């Protein structure tokens, strides 16, 4: 919550993530959300209420339920099942493309929008693998530059 405020006020810069890192990231479902698939093949996500004092008071005052149920369509259910931390986003795009006979651009655009919505609502998180620093070649140290007075260097 604090980070969201800092990002909005531009007091903190969001981490730079390029497209290749996004495509290699692993979407992971929130462990607090329970889900089940009904007989129609649609997933029902049960989202618990936040456990904060003001939320509990308002829910008592207005008699709100302590959980929300969100039903996903067949494509959303298919993508939700693949958000298990084992499939990368690029693998999910290829799978959706093959399963529903979509072009790559259609599958990628709709999947990015759907993942963005799930991420904003904290239904999923993204595990971005760290780049291998040992794979980068070692840079040679720069040769010593002459001092302020040219060739006069301290020895």
Q: Any idea of the CATH topology of one domain?
A: Outer Surface Protein A, domain 3
**Major sheet:** 3 strands, antiparallel
First and last CA, distance: 55 Å
Taking all residues together, what is the mean pLDDT?
A: 81
Task: Describe this entry's structure for a reader.
With 155 residues, the chain is an alpha+beta fold. It has a domain at 18-125: Alpha-Beta Complex (Outer Surface Protein A, domain 3), CATH 3.90.930. Helices cover 39% and strands 15% of the residues. The chain has helices spanning 2-8, 19-24, 53-62, 74-82, 89-99, 104-120; strands at 26-29, 34-37, 43-48, 67-71, 124-127. Strand 2 and strand 3 (43-48) form a beta hairpin. The longest helix has 17 residues, at 104-120. The chain is flat. The termini are far apart.
Question: Keywords, please?
Answer:
155 residues; alpha+beta; Outer Surface Protein A, domain 3
Helix and strand arrangement:
Elements: H1 2-8, H2 19-24, E1 26-29, E2 34-37, E3 43-48, H3 53-62, E4 67-71, H4 74-82, H5 89-99, H6 104-120, E5 124-127
Antiparallel strand pairs: 1-5, 2-3, 3-4
Helix pairs in contact: 5-6
Brief rundown of the structure:
With 155 residues, the protein is an alpha+beta fold. It is built from six helices and five strands, in the order ααβββαβαααβ. Helix 5 (89-99) crosses helix 6 (104-120).
